[in-house]
Amino acid sequence: MAQKRKLKQEKPPASLRARALRLLARREHSRLELEYKLAPHAPDPGELGSLLDDLARRGWLSERRLVEQVIHTRRGKFGSRRIRQELLDKGVAEELIAEALPQLEESDVEAAREVWRRKFGAPPRSRNERAQQVRFMQGRGFDLATIFTVIEGEKE
Q1: What is the pLDDT of residue 89?
Q2: Closest to 71 measured CA to CA, from 102, 40, 38, 32
Q3: How far is the C-alpha of 64 from the C-alpha of 69, rounded, in Å?
Q4: How wide is the angle at C-alpha 129 spanned by C-alphas 128 and 131, nearest 5°?
Q5: Which residues make Cβ contacts (< 8 Å) with residue 149, sequence separation at least 6?
Q6: What percent of the chain has pLDDT over 90?
Q7: What was the pLDDT predicted at 5?
Q8: Which of 16, 28, 49, 83 is a plausible cystine mate for 66, CB 3.0–4.6 Å?
Q9: Is the pLDDT of residue 14 over 60?
Q10: Is 146 a residue whose pLDDT tops 90?
């Protein structure tokens, strides 16, 4: 008995707008990120610019929402410095980051305390342990004053 083989029908290439909407449906993107991801598929750079302008005008592309999303997802693991740098890497405007930074810095001690507790849970017993804890916390984006507040506060 012969098997019937289905021929794969080739899909027509997705339009630039469809690609952009598919990317935005997964998560928020900055204009720079979206431009970088869509550029290889854009026949004309002017078309890409006008598409991004249209998406922003309709409210589908919002760097303010991106800032909120990154802060919400990263806050449990990282400090304000690391989150700030991630936002800069994504191409978010400095003004939007500056608006969110005071709120982040206010909760840095609580976030650092939680990260420290999950990772270490006990005050350092030696200088080497202390240095290890400080390096870890710095890598997570917390400043030294916050780190020492957390580590010293746990000794009491």
Answers
A1: 95
A2: 102
A3: 9
A4: 65
A5: 109, 112
A6: 72
A7: 57
A8: 28
A9: yes
A10: yes
Complete domains list, the chain, with CATH? 15-61 (1.10.10.10), 108-153 (1.10.10)
| Residue 143, amino acid | D
**Cβ proximity of 129 and 137 under 8 Å:** no
User: pTM (2 decimals)?
Assistant: 0.80
Residues in the chain: 156
**Residues 52, 58, 64, 66: is their CA dihedral positive or negative?**
negative
Residue 126: CB partners within 8 Å, gap ≥ 6? none
Q: Which residue is it, tokens 């005050």?
A: 123
CA 142 – CA 135 distance, rounded (Å): 10
pLDDT band at 152 (very low <50, low <70, confident <90, very high): confident
- Spatial CB neighbours of 21, under 8 Å, sequence gap ≥ 6: 60
d(C-alpha 63, C-alpha 90), whole Å:
10
CB 15 within 8 A of CB 43: no
**Average pLDDT rounded to a whole number, residues 57-73:** 93
